[in-house]
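thought: fold this chain, then report.
action: predict
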Amino acid sequence: MKVNPLFETRKKRPIARLSPTLALISLALLCACEQDQSNLIPIAAPAAISSSCNDNSALQTILYGVIETTISWSGSDMICENMRRPAGQGIRLRFAGEVSGEQLALIIALPELRAGQEGVETATNVTATVEGSGRFFTTPGLDSCWTDVRSQTPLQDDSGRVELHGELSCIAALGEVNGNASLSIPSMSFTTLVEWGEQ
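observation:
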């Protein structure tokens, strides 16, 4: 059986004995580190991700290539997030859910979309990643995918959010960043909540 050199056992080295002087210095440093911890500010735990899915949120697609699966997520199956792109350049939508025991994230960037636009086809960038794997797949530019924005319906709760429904189409595969594999998403249907904020 071959031994992986990364896990090869290192030869034990003899333990060097500290001189009395070094021992005293080490003890003094150790004592200096033992200070009163009561006045230290505790580090807050990371905030939980707040999902912008609602009961109507959904994502349906079929993936081909390095990942072959059918996805049919509802609002309770996934995490939805959205944010305005820099300098008011449209919006970015993120969907994340479980596929074969792993967390898959799909990011849809709509740089030309504006609040309230309906019945328009807008150029789209798509990125997919299996979280924790370091593998990313993305479109080469804005000329291979587009989204038909079917509706942007304001919610009746004075939150300023809208329910956005779109149909995505891609004519080219998403290439792997720093790799040779590819992932194809010929079509996708999605519904999510969007908060445009001040325009």
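thought: worth noting. Residues 58-195 form one domain.
final: tokens above.
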